[in-house]
Amino acid sequence: MSRPTIAGVARAAGVSVASVSRVLNGLPATEEMVERVQRAVAELGYVPDARARSLKVGRTFQLTLAVADVGNPVYVTMMRAVEEVVSAAGYRLVVTTTGPDVVDEVALVRGMARGYADGLLISPLRVDEDLVKSIRECEVPVVVAGNVPAKAGVDTVRANSPKGMLLAVDHLVARGRTKIAFLNGPADTVPGAARAKGFADALKAHDLEAVATAEASDFTFAAGRAAAPELLVAEVAVGLDAVICANDLLAVGVMHELAAAGLRVPEDVAVVGMDDSELAEQSFPPLTSVNLGSAERGRRAAELLLARIEDNDRTPRRIVVQPSLSIRKSTP
Amino acid sequence: MSRPTIAGVARAAGVSVASVSRVLNGLPATEEMVERVQRAVAELGYVPDARARSLKVGRTFQLTLAVADVGNPVYVTMMRAVEEVVSAAGYRLVVTTTGPDVVDEVALVRGMARGYADGLLISPLRVDEDLVKSIRECEVPVVVAGNVPAKAGVDTVRANSPKGMLLAVDHLVARGRTKIAFLNGPADTVPGAARAKGFADALKAHDLEAVATAEASDFTFAAGRAAAPELLVAEVAVGLDAVICANDLLAVGVMHELAAAGLRVPEDVAVVGMDDSELAEQSFPPLTSVNLGSAERGRRAAELLLARIEDNDRTPRRIVVQPSLSIRKSTP
DNA sequence: TTGTAAGCGTTATCAA
DNA sequence: TTGATAACGCTTACAA
């Protein structure tokens, strides 16, 4: 015996399929009709088919969140926030992972035209013409958590990393650290570019020069460790006393290398991360980290997506979330 | 202008919808037919609707992976392994999160009957009659990464935590640590119960008595920190010299509390975690951890799921993956 | 090789 | 209030 359909329920209840559908959707019906249908539904264990339903009504009540790397704790913060908003609105959230390449991101956006979900929330690491084009042409609403040109004509929620960088530098300087190095992720990524510029500006604001900068091949722990030695030469050369990292994973990687080199955090070298993810509290010493508002970005991005699903004609909004600094033990 | 359908393509190409479908699916057609259809497809930017297609063919080519907590790094290991296998087989993987409650897990399994995916991979924290029943009655193939009664009649891939516990205790004893405490997660969970028993048996095998045991309210970092003080009383009382934790997050939580109490890891107290997740390498000191084979479990579970989709009549397999120990710096 | 048409499981329109 | 029926966009017999 195969899965029961609405027709089977109708037959079992001795009513029409239309009536079954009505009862199921809470439309007016007599007491008795409701009763009969519900009994048949329960008896057969009928569950409506979401594909057929969505084919008809044009909605799936699913939303997709695409993240570049499930291993990056910043995404779990964001995911939790998004989940909360969308499930409260009666949508299922499905998460999918794209990897760091823009081509996969484009393929994902294009693929949304297949009707998998009613909306898409992406946070792309790299952005190119193709991606902008695919977003603009996408059949379903897209919201970008990150920075994408205004001509993409899409709602965005982004962080203010320059301001965040300034917070980090202010803090270090206030604690007497001025020989500051910077470990960035790939500079050809959107966050990488923003943070590089932010760092440069923040140092300039304090009339400081970078003691060293390095670029990790990825925003990962392993890449952070691999790139750290480049920074450490500055330690012997000029007495580096602080390093700011483009995210928490990189910062934790650096702290490991610092320890391996016999340097203490924060006594010898202070370390500041960015994202203020769960990892920042879990690391040892707990990591001072720039909170770029990932939870709030997730929440607001989700709200924008829901709003656009309701009304696709609203003019795109570009929200910027302000950063704050979570001071922990990795800085003096 | 709305989204183009196969009928639109057919009209534009001046052929029948059947021919368009055939060309799109690579079925035999003349050179010219292929040419005309492809031109029309490109011109209109046509993308086939996955819902309609799957309604017809009865397959979605999507697989669902449900995890209890996206913040638990053991799931990222598993997710990566699953993703690799299923995408190689031409399926999309979508991840969804259930939370720790069994009712949500049941709702998820029941909901699969709605046709969201061709198969489901779950790793439930808690298992009850309802869940077993829902799995048995599920319309789509289910594979469980974890332990579920054989009567569920489902493929399972589980870890051997007793053996893993023994590995941990063996290691500690070999390094001269015999005053061992245990921090478990909730004992009413499947992994919690297995690890409690494993720990007890492992100690017995060494003629040892537990110096202290505690139960965290969750398998999380915060719960680990909160529960740690219970263990620390044993330190002052009898000179605790090692603690085994039911997962890496708990272990990291304990290490923080140990540090707060002025105890050094591993000199004063050795710590061993379980799962050997990315967090184990990232933590400081790097955590000695029992590798319960999460990557292999993910891989094999995905393979079982694909196999069952091919042939739903095969008899359910119950695979056990053997553990190993990843020795790092948190043990002497 | 190509076209016609029936259906996949729903919902929505229209009469009754 | 209820029932018959036409879509939704696709695939696939079956005919031509």
UniProtKB/TrEMBL annotation, chains A, B:
<dbReference type="GO" id="GO:0003700">
    <property type="term" value="F:DNA-binding transcription factor activity"/>
</dbReference>
<protein>
    <submittedName>
        <fullName>LacI family transcriptional regulator</fullName>
    </submittedName>
</protein>
<feature type="domain" description="HTH lacI-type">
    <location>
        <begin position="4"/>
        <end position="57"/>
    </location>
</feature>
<keyword id="KW-0804">Transcription</keyword>
<dbReference type="Pfam" id="PF00356">
    <property type="entry name" value="LacI"/>
</dbReference>
<dbReference type="InterPro" id="IPR000843">
    <property type="entry name" value="HTH_LacI"/>
</dbReference>
<dbReference type="GO" id="GO:0000976">
    <property type="term" value="F:transcription cis-regulatory region binding"/>
</dbReference>
<dbReference type="Pfam" id="PF13377">
    <property type="entry name" value="Peripla_BP_3"/>
</dbReference>
<dbReference type="InterPro" id="IPR046335">
    <property type="entry name" value="LacI/GalR-like_sensor"/>
</dbReference>
<dbReference type="InterPro" id="IPR010982">
    <property type="entry name" value="Lambda_DNA-bd_dom_sf"/>
</dbReference>
<keyword id="KW-0805">Transcription regulation</keyword>
<keyword id="KW-0238">DNA-binding</keyword>
<dbReference type="InterPro" id="IPR028082">
    <property type="entry name" value="Peripla_BP_I"/>
</dbReference>
